[in-house]
Design brief:
The protein has 453 residues and is of the alpha/beta class. The chain is built from 16 helices and 14 strands. The protein has a nine-stranded mixed beta sheet with strand order 9-8-1-2-3-4-7-11-10.
């Protein structure tokens, strides 16, 4: 329960520092929707989603009005469709994506995640069909998001899947070229994917999850930036860390409140709070600006990775004290197109893909919402995925790649997506070939620490 002083402080954070609940996501198991008939399976899927999530948007809006806490997105995540559609005799799963899109539209949610496959150790028939269906599925739908997990610390890296996803990302860009390759903005490739992530494009309802669940994604870069600014440049890093921890605690308490209230009203079990700092293109809502508030002239200069490490650690320490159920990705996101400070740093030449890769060693996700030249080869995209997966596997953490090779673009161009997805400056990638490396295929073995049980 929030005490009066915390309520006043929370109101200030909402109105002056852009605090919001980034998403309330309802997870739904579709395991009972399997059927040898694809048509019957899709009918079951549509009925179940629309029945369970029917009141999600209205409930979220009511909580917003009553508590004065902005809830930016209402979303749905479902069991990976590769697991459901595999029981059918269908040879293409695009119609499953169309069904998800229709259900999401009827429910009024912003996005639905779960057009997904888990192939970290190899493919099943359903996995292969789903992945091959991704480019068309994302081109003909508006709200469907897709993800593929192709590496874990226990299994190593499925390099056949890495090669495959380079091709799929290129095809997705081409099929949605008229919309600035937005299909790629709805597709993320993971290593060590969490099963309870409420954030898109990587959300799906994992096989270890209950029948239904409510997961909350919070945000608040502006709040964190403000507490660092108040501490002043005379504050050492110990003091800065403590201030961030206190702010993260308060932010997470708000997320816990909203999650519990949504759970009670919808009669759906409360799952987790993902205490990530998720930026937007809006002024005062940037992770890059937090790092600059610590004393960096611009995000991307020397010291950036250390500043991000402090931020990520302090957010997790503070947030974990505010809720018993922390999950998802939890930390700091660094999506280029969705962060005004990141965009400015790229445009000024201080932030490049190599520096972003170094930052992903300790951030929550990875190379996120990065536009690259349209003529970038599938093998180069695969090699970037392989590098990021290696960081995740060796460090036993989640990493991901969301690249947009927008057709017809070159370095320095701007690709606009609109809304929370923002706009991305097209970034340079190496022109040296990785093709022979990628075409070896097979599986990069798991590291030695995978043998721990």
């Amino acid at each position: 329960m929030l005490i009066p002083s915390e309520i006043v402080e929370t109101i200030k954070m909402i109105h002056e520092e852009n605090l919001d609940i980034r998403t309330v996501t309802v997870g739904i198991s579709l395991r009972d929707c399997c059927d040898s008939s694809g048509k019957k399976s899709r009918e079951k899927i549509y009925e179940k989603i629309t029945r369970i999530a029917e009141k999600l948007v209205k409930t979220g809006e009511n909580i917003e009005k009553e508590y004065g806490i902005p809830i930016i997105n209402k979303r749905i995540s479902v069991t990976p469709i590769s697991l459901i559609a595999e029981s059918s005799e269908d040879e293409n799963y695009t119609e499953y994506a169309v069904t998800l899109d229709k259900a999401a539209s009827i429910c009024g949610v912003n996005f639905i995640g779960g057009f997904s496959a888990l192939v970290h150790k190899g493919y099943t028939k359903g996995d292969k069909i789903l992945i091959d269906s991704i480019p068309e599925a994302l081109a003909v739908t508006d709200k469907v998001c897709s993800s593929v997990n192709l590496a874990t610390t226990k299994a190593g890296i499925n390099m056949d899947a890495v090669r495959h996803m380079g091709i799929i990302i290129k095809e997705a860009a081409e099929k949605s070229a008229s919309k600035n390759a937005i299909g790629c903005a709805k597709l993320v490739v993971f290593a060590n994917v969490p099963e309870d992530n409420p954030f898109m494009a990587g959300a799906f309802h994992g096989v270890g999850e209950p029948e239904t669940t409510i997961n909350i994604g919070i945000s608040g870069p502006g709040v964190i930036q403000n507490v660092i600014k108040k501490a002043g440049l005379q504050a050492d890093f110990g003091v800065v860390s403590e201030e961030i921890k206190r702010a993260a605690f308060k932010i997470t308490r708000v997320g816990e409140l909203v999650g519990r209230e949504a759970s009670r009203r919808l009669k759906i079990p409360f799952g987790i709070v993902d205490l990530s700092l998720a930026p937007t293109p809006a002024r005062g809502d940037s992770v890059a600006h937090i790092l600059e508030e610590m004393g960096l002239e611009v995000c991307g200069t020397h010291g950036t990775t250390a500043a991000l490490a402090l931020l990520n650690d302090a957010v997790k320490k503070g947030g974990s004290m505010a809720s018993s159920y922390i999950g998802g990705l939890s930390g700091s996101f660094i999506p280029v197109s969705e962060d005004a400070g990141m965009i400015a740093a790229v445009k000024s030449g201080h932030l490049n893909i190599e520096k972003l890769e170094a930052m992903t060693c300790i951030c929550s996700v990875g190379l996120d919402m990065i536009a690259i030249p349209g003529d970038t080869s599938a093998e180069t995209i695969s090699a970037i995925i392989a590098d990021e997966a290696a960081i995740g596997v060796i460090n036993n953490k989640t990493t991901a790649v969301r690249l947009i090779p927008a057709p017809g673009t070159k370095v320095g161009d701007i690709v606009n997506f609109g809304g929370l997805l923002g706009s991305a400056p097209v970034m340079k990638v190496s022109n040296a070939s990785s093709a022979s490396f990628i075409h070896r295929g097979g599986r990069i073995p798991s590291p030695l620490n995978a043998l721990k049980n």
